Amino acid sequence: MIVERFEFYLKDGRIASVRSPEERDIQDMLDFLYKSAGETEFIIRYPEECGEYTVEKEREIIQRINKSDNEAMLVCLVDEKIVGSCVISWSNNLKTKHRASTAIVLLCEYWNLGIGTRLIQQVIKMAEENKNIIQIELSFVEGNTRARALYEKMGFKITGVKPNAIRLKDGTLLNEYAMIREIKR
User: Cα–Cα distance between 37 and 19 in angstroms, integer?
Assistant: First the structure.
């Protein structure tokens, strides 16, 4: 699904734009993927696990998502550099098409500028526009207090925990928390 480009002001006065990824973004997307994977323990993969993402695979992912009727990717650009990404998807299966799933990643230097809020607002709007969706689901890793605060601010509530869902390189085990936001109509 294509997301039409829109702009907004960051808290520091710069302009950010959000849109669907395009073929010209492939290398920037790969660079973003590697950098974000190495900035925090809260991303599901380490940078060395990103090797499966190649230019061709990224091209296929972008094309598939942009052509999809039940999936969208938003990229946030500041000074024409990708600094954030958010996805939303939902099933076409009768039993689960009422549920949407979302995930978001921002480069650390762009935290606390309003990007996360704006991206989550957009996926909520997209879910609200789909008459079948009655809830949006996401998860966060134990210790990611910034993400939890953002999600709670946006109306998400914790619904469960997966104990020891994440194992860091040093052996530390972290829980993963599931959250849901109901769509009000």
Answer: 22
